[in-house]
Amino acid sequence: MNQYVITNCIKLKYALLITPLFFLTAIILFLYLKNALQVDQYILIQSDFFYFLNATLSQFSTVIVNLTQLGDEIVVLSLLSIFVLYVPKLWEALISSSLVSCIFTSSLKKIFAVPRPAAVFDPHSFVIIGKTLNGHNSLPSGHSVTIFTILTVLLFAFMPKNLNYKILWYLFIMGMGLILVLTRVGVGAHYPLDTIIGGIIGYVSGLLGIFINKKYPIWTWVNQKKYYPIFMLFFLICSMSIISKIMDENLFILYVALASLIISLYKIIYVYNKK
């Protein structure tokens, strides 16, 4: 499986960046034509859609509050932790992509400084699930960037060879990504465009991470047994973080993430100690 991922990643071309950059340009043009490049107008033009999506999605509160956790990097990487042993190439790409996405997210949030819905609208006028977020860091949605960064790496790493399966795989990943990012609107944390723009940035981050990893193989040590203690420590820290989250929120997805970490930790310790 690891060789399959290596082969897929080698085949990727920079031309794949054209599509997400086209969509970003289209959104910027749309905002320009709507005179919505200013923060107030950016919020205003999507307020009705925000209220509609929030009211609709919040009806499935149990589902969306679990799904939105997949935008937390610790949670989603915990679910993929077992691949360190069996598909280390995937983790090499994930590390690079995650670093790129962190740079994009932190930088753009500071540049745009768009206030969260709870900082603009009456908190009683829409549904807020979980903690009330009212800072000025709404654009882009960090959870959406993370979700699409991870999904993009998975998309191209495990891309099938058959054309029909490729199409189905692409539609499945993109559909899943869209559902997951819109949960951020459902919980009242972001405006719709925050999540769409965040998803596109995540897609770009995933591709850039793969390209960087292909040109500069700085994470090849991931596949070396002598470095497994680094992942043991990382998984242990993640486990403690997940346990803390469970004590605070007690969500099903967190138990799944914790179980995944425990299994991965056991397997990696077993492999490391095996002569």
Automatic annotation (TrEMBL):
The keyword Signal does not apply. Keywords: Membrane, Transmembrane, Transmembrane helix. SUPFAM superfamilies: Acid phosphatase/Vanadium-dependent haloperoxidase (SSF48317). The keyword Ion transport does not apply. Pfam families: PAP2. CDD domains: PAP2_like. It comes from the Bacteria. The chain crosses the membrane at residues 12-33, 49-67, 74-91, 141-160, 167-187, 193-212, 227-246, 252-272. PANTHER family: AT30094P, SPHINGOSINE-1-PHOSPHATE PHOSPHOHYDROLASE. This is Phosphatase PAP2 family protein. The lineage of its organism: Bacteria, Pseudomonadati, Bacteroidota, Sphingobacteriia, Sphingobacteriales.
